[in-house]
UniProtKB/TrEMBL annotation:
Protein name in the entry: Nucleolar protein 14
Keywords (A to Z) from UniProt: Nucleus, Ribosome biogenesis, rRNA processing
Gene name as annotated: LOC100820144
Region annotation Disordered: where it falls in the sequence: 1-37, 262-452, 922-947
Family: Belongs to the NOP14 family.
Subcellular location: Nucleus, Nucleolus
């Protein structure tokens, strides 16, 4: 231990010597000088500060330095006065806020404050419950007892007379006037701050009340004088002849009674009643429009809440249940008819005349027999129909209409029903060339209504269980028409025909979807067109897709079979156009239900048709133009799928196929031109929505016009057309050499059924009809492509051909007018485009020289100064710089505030730690002392234990 201590002492002495040697070296002297210089420079007491008399912002004097210590101390003092106080008060909630009335208004004296407080107290008392109204005071007198009694403190809900109300209002006004704040009284008094005594206040109230009473009496006297003057003027006016000429004679007594007051009141009342009666009679004779409207509104049905809108699944379920119920009833009737057949035979051997029995409401019509006579007694159905007819006739009589109009309308309906078949058979080319601009939904709704009417009519005949009731219903419906036009024998014959048709009509309500083409043919064969559509609709309703997942597969198979049936039907001769039109609606609806499968079926058929076309075009003997089946399918797909899409999986191949037909098929006969014009019209309906350009259709129409000319020379403009139409042999197939008496519309489906070598295609009427179709299609393309910038280049050659065709000798006048209209339309559109066009010009605008910039050089340049010539931009830049500087200063001040608060919190925490340590030390010392006393035997400190 001694050695180690000596070593440590030795080492410490050597270290001290080394430090002293370092300090007294040359480097030590230099460091000492630097330290002295730094000490003198940073000594704030050796710097001289001169206090400025005036503080000027932004002014700096030479040699003046910032007083960092003073600025820091001032900032700390400011934070102690503001931020530190807010910090100390942030955790306190016992702050006093003086909210007494009038304390913040220095203009009020103590008396004015007391008046305001008393008014506030009275307002609060008025809002108390009804019990407070009858609460008696404890005998304390108020300074304003008399004034308080004048207010409406009690019985506010009672109705008082007008005079009392006026008096109370006057008293309240007086009270308010007398209780004005002394500082707000008029300047004429001169005693603003003087407190008035109770006597003075009451004197003022009495004087004011006397003034109001005198004013009221004066107004009343003036009103009485005015009434007397009016009475005198009225009496003089009554005796004048001008008023007597204008008044009615039955009212003269009333006027005299008002003037003389001698006629008794009874007489005047009688005259008044008689006058009112005459007026009522005149009004009743001519009812007003308002009275008519009121009567009509009283007879109208009031609106009642309806059921909620049903979902498609619920509608399909209800329809299926209805058909199932009808099918079950039909099966029961069939079984009952078979069971009763033997009994009918036995009864027929013993003929006996039976009296006609009445038809009850529960009669199902099962007891019908052939030999039974038609009952003349009316049943429950006839009574209902008669009731409806009576209501209709009564409503017509009320409206003032002629009841004969009903019969005429029914005649018109009957005539329209009889002419329906003839109208449907006479379909022309326009029925299939309709544009897609027309609302297909509206057409579908019309067809839907017709189908529903057909179906409901057939179902109504089946629902009435028995042909006897059906015969009575049909006879009742046609009763008014037969009474006007036909006799009794003809009506009986018509009833027999209807009975036979309803007997032959035996279509089940629930039909399973056919899986093959043969099954569908077995269902629809030997049925009319309406029944075929009825069968298809019942198949769809029997297998609704929303109700079961397996129904989707069934309907997909049925869709393919139905599309095949449509194609086969379109290929038959003669063509059943009516049934084809009726099949379009269910195909469109099913395509919406299964769109993906419908698109697949369409693409497969398009691919097969394209392959057949390629094979047929290689054979020069046969015609490669599309058949009626292909044309009907193309038209069907253009109605099912959207035509305005830029690229569509079905319509794009369809358009390309139709354009290929127009370009590659050779024109041999007039039949080919008719088919090509039909394809052009279909393309027009497709492109009318998308506005796409179709050069194939324009070229074909131009070729058709060339076929109508007699010129055989080839111009330079047409040579390019011949190059594009290399497969088409241009012949004057549409040239008219003879006069045409009448131009009939082109019946396209009639042309399709004709053979190619028919003489009809060389007739003049056919050529005129085709030219009319070509001109109408051309006019449609002109309207579609009028917005294209290349319109003149497309249609100017056609314009020249139209002028050449119009100059032919044998051209009909109607056709010549049509040609001139189309030519004028082309000329008008071409002129519009030419006026909008402007020729190209070289260097119309002067060349803009290169912008020259002066060098950025300043003679007396000052660093930091803005030399921008745009002063607004310079000011904006200056403001942005100042804003940035202020933002930095604000952030700096916030940081200093945070540092200040952190120091304050740290001081508080250190004081708390120090206090806690002192308490801990005192407690520990106390415990140690207790432990020491316990161990020492209660002897205390410094004492030795006795033995």
């Amino acid at each position: 231990m001694a050695k180690s201590s000596k070593r440590s002492v030795g080492t410490s002495t050597t270290d001290k010597k080394k430090k002293k040697s370092k300090k007294f070296g040359p480097e030590g002297v230099a460091m000492k000088v630097k330290a002295n210089n730094n000490a003198t420079a940073s000594n704030p007491f050796e710097s001289i500060w001169s206090r400025r008399k005036f503080e000027v912002l932004g002014q700096k004097r030479k040699g003046e330095a910032r007083r960092m210590g003073l600025a820091r101390s001032l900032a700390i003092q400011k934070r102690n006065n503001t931020l530190l106080k807010e910090y100390h008060q942030s955790a306190k909630s016992s702050l006093f806020v003086d909210k007494r009335i009038g304390e913040k208004d220095e203009a009020l004296d103590e008396f004015g404050k007391a008046i305001l407080r008393s008014q506030r107290e009275r307002q609060l008392n008025m809002k108390l419950s009804k019990k407070s109204k009858y609460h008696l005071s404890d005998g304390e007198e108020n300074d304003f007892e008399g004034i308080d009694s004048l207010g409406r403190d009690d019985f506010e809900d009672e109705m008082l007379p007008d005079d009392i109300d006026a008096e109370t209002d006057e008293k309240l006004d007086l009270v308010q006037w007398s209780m004005q704040i002394p500082g707000e009284t008029s300047a004429d008094d001169g005693e603003e701050n003087r407190h008035k005594s109770k006597k003075e206040v009451m004197e003022e109230i009495i004087s004011k009340s006397k003034f109001y009473k005198a004013q009221k009496a004066k107004d009343k006297e003036e009103n009485e004088n005015l009434v007397e003057e009016l009475d005198k003027d009225f009496t003089s006016l009554i005796h004048s002849e001008a008023l007597l000429s204008l008044t009615e004679p039955n009212k003269m007594n009333a006027l005299k009674a008002l003037v003389n007051k001698s006629i008794s009141n009874d007489q005047s009342n009688k005259d008044h009643m008689s006058a009112t009666r005459t007026m009522d009679n005149s009004v009743q004779e001519k009812p007003d429009d308002y009275d008519k409207l009121v009567k009509q509104m009283g007879l109208e049905m009031r609106a009642r809440p309806s059921d909620r809108t049903k979902t498609p699944e619920e509608i399909a379920q209800e329809e299926k249940e209805r058909l199932e119920q009808l099918e079950e009833e039909r099966q029961k009737r069939m079984v009952a008819a078979e069971d009763s057949s033997d009994e009918d035979n036995e009864d027929s051997e013993k003929p006996s005349e039976q009296k006609p029995r009445s038809i009850s409401g529960d009669d199902l019509g099962d007891s019908f027999s052939v030999n039974e006579q038609i009952m003349t007694k009316k049943g429950w159905v006839d009574e209902i129909l008669e009731r409806r007819d009576e209501e209709d006739s009564s409503s017509e009589d009320d409206d003032g209409e002629d009841p004969d109009n009903l019969g005429s309308s029914e005649d018109a309906d009957e005539g329209s029903n009889e002419d329906l078949d003839e109208h449907k058979k006479d379909l022309s080319l326009k029925d299939w060339e309709q544009s897609d601009d027309d609302d297909i939904g509206a057409d579908l709704e019309d067809e839907d209504d017709s189908d529903e009417n057909i179906e409901t009519a057939a179902e109504d005949l089946d629902e009435v269980k028995g042909l006897d009731a059906a015969v009575h219903i049909r006879a009742k419906r046609n009763a008014s028409v037969e009474s006007v036009k036909k006799d009794k024998d003809s009506s009986d014959a018509k009833i027999d025909v209807v009975g036979k048709q309803s007997k032959e009509l035996d279509i089940p309500y629930i039909i399973q979807a056919p899986k093959t083409f043969e099954e569908l043919c077995s269902l629809v064969d030997k049925h009319s067109n309406d029944n075929v559509i009825l069968i298809i609709n019942r198949i769809r309703k029997s297998n609704p897709i929303p109700l079961a997942a397996e129904n989707r597969k069934k309907m997909q198979v049925f869709y393919g079979v139905l599309l095949q049936y449509f194609a086969v039907l379109a290929n038959k001769e003669p063509l059943n156009v009516e049934l084809l039109n009726m099949l379009v609606k269910p195909l469109i609806e099913m395509s919406k239900e299964i769109p993906y499968f419908a698109a697949i079926c369409a693409r497969r058929r398009i691919e097969a048709t394209r392959k057949q076309f390629i094979e047929s075009i290689k054979q020069s003997e046969s015609s490669s133009w599309p058949s009626s089946k292909t044309l009907c399918l193309l038209r069907l797909w253009s109605m099912i799928f959207p035509c305005s899409d830029f690229r569509h999986p079905v319509m794009t191949p369809v358009i390309l196929l139709m354009c290929e037909y127009l370009m590659r098929c050779p024109i041999v006969s007039g039949r080919d031109i008719a088919i090509g014009s039909f394809l052009c019209s279909m393309l027009l309906s497709v492109f009318r929505q998308s506005r796409k350009f179709c050069p194939e259709a324009i070229i074909f129409l131009r070729t058709s016009l060339l076929a109508a000319t007699e010129s055989k020379h080839v111009s330079d403009e047409d040579s390019q057309l011949y190059h594009l139409m290399e497969l088409k042999a241009l012949k004057p197939l549409l040239c008219i050499h003879e006069t045409v008496n009448e131009i009939s519309p082109l019946n396209f489906f009639k042309i399709i059924d004709m053979p190619e070598d028919s003489s009809f295609f060389t007739s003049v009427s056919f050529r005129a009809s085709v030219l009319v179709a070509v001109f109408e299609t051309l006019q449609g393309y002109i309207n579609v492509y009028e917005g294209l910038s290349s319109f003149p280049e497309m249609f100017l050659p056609i314009f020249k051909l139209l002028n050449e065709i119009a100059e032919q000798k044998n051209m009909p006048n109607a056709l010549r007018d049509k040609i001139k209209d189309v030519a004028e339309l082309i000329k008008l559109k071409v002129d519009e485009h030419h006026t909008l066009r402007r020729p190209l010009q070289m260097r119309k605008q002067k060349p803009v020289p290169i912008k020259l910039l002066n060098p950025k050089f300043e003679e007396n340049y000052v660093k930091g100064r803005d030399y921008d010539p745009d002063r607004e931009q310079a000011e904006l830049r200056k403001l942005k710089k100042q804003l940035k500087r202020e933002a930095k200063g604000a952030a700096r001040e916030l940081r200093k505030d945070n540092y200040f608060l952190l120091e304050v919190k740290e001081k508080e925490r250190s004081l708390q730690e120090k206090d806690r340590a002192e308490k801990y030390g005192r407690a520990k010392a106390f415990l140690q002392e207790q432990e020491h006393a316990f161990k020492s035997g209660q002897l205390g400190k410094g004492r030795k234990r006795r033995r």
